[in-house]
Amino acid sequence: MNLRQLRYVVATADHGTMTSAAQALYVAQPALSRAVRELERELGIELFARSGRGVVLTVAGEQVVRQARIALEAVDAIEAVTRGNGRGAELRIATTPTLEPELTGRLLPRFARDQPAVRVRVVRCDGREAVGAAIRAGRADLAVTDLPVPGDLAAHPFEQREVVLISPPGLKLRDPVPLKELDGLRLIMPTRGTARRAEMDAMLVRIGATPVVAVESDERGAWLGWVRAGRGSLLWYRNQVEDVEGLSLRSLIPPITRTIGLVHAHRPLPALAREFLAFAKEAGA
């Protein structure tokens, strides 16, 4: 018996299928299934029974998973001690490309002033689902991500941000801008195939708007330059926009808002993670 097998069994119990558990842990499904079967053979019991397209815990499986959670929490607590003492202290925080500037540019510098001996490692994830997987697999202590998240994760909202439209000064639009006016509007967009672009495309689908992509670029520092050059407008978050002098910044109606939160697994947090969580909630307030 090993920790990997226990993590796989707990993940399968949480997700209801071995395929979903494997996806959440970023492992191949055959490898996960094989590890679970090996544990069943070693214990001499059946942990899961088939139910429709998924699996459910047997009576014995429920007892094993209950003890496995306790064991994994104990391991996490031991790791927290080693991370939380002296110069080896490290805090691992997962986030998406869109929210990384919020984490590294605003939150971490302020936190580091009070915790100079702490090393913070940013775990970069390509989207909200990958963030959740990093938390479940124990590759991160906390995550900064969009809410809501699945119920197997604990969420602490700390900020709500507004999407605004930044346009060249000569563009005639109402203020605030009705969402329907985004249809056919020339926009500066992140590069296709990136997490930022997927996020923006999903938002436009939700509001039923089909703009014209004028420029595709992942260089955030160049976006406002393209707007100043009259190439198109930009949809972005109000609190991440700087130096809009000479440009038109308008709210949308109805407003588009996004709730940001700190997320972690339902298990005891390392001391550093608890400190950062309290700090971030205070900073957001």
The chain-level mean pLDDT equals: 85
What is the CATH homology-level superfamily of the largest domain? Periplasmic binding protein-like II
| Total beta-strand segments | 13
**What's the architecture of the largest domain in CATH terms?**
3-Layer(aba) Sandwich
Strand content: 15-25%
What's the domain count? 3
What's the CATH C level of the largest domain? Alpha Beta
Instruction: Bin the helical content.
Output: 40-55%
Number of helices: 9
> Alpha-carbon distance between the termini?
45 Å
Can you walk me through this structure?
The protein has 9 helices and 13 strands. The chain is of the alpha/beta class and 285 residues long. It has 3 domains: 3-79, Orthogonal Bundle (Arc Repressor Mutant, subunit A); 83-159 and 259-284, D-Maltodextrin-Binding Protein, domain 2; 161-257, D-Maltodextrin-Binding Protein, domain 2 (3-Layer(aba) Sandwich), CATH 3.40.190.290. The chain is elongated, with a radius of gyration of 23 Å. The mean pLDDT is 85. This is LysR family transcriptional regulator. Residues 1-58 form the HTH lysR-type domain.
What's this model, at a glance?
This protein has 285 residues and is α/β, with parallel strands linked by helices.
Secondary structure topology:
Layout lengths: L2 H13 L2 H8 L3 H15 L4 E4 L2 E4 L1 H25 L6 E6 L4 H15 L4 E6 L3 H9 L5 E5 L6 E15 L9 E2 L7 E4 L5 H13 L4 E5 L3 H9 L5 E4 L10 E3 L1 E2 L3 E9 L5 H14 L1
Parallel strand pairs: 3-4, 3-5, 7-12, 8-9
Antiparallel strand pairs: 1-2, 5-13, 6-10, 6-11, 6-13
Helix pairs in contact: 1-2, 1-3, 1-4, 2-3
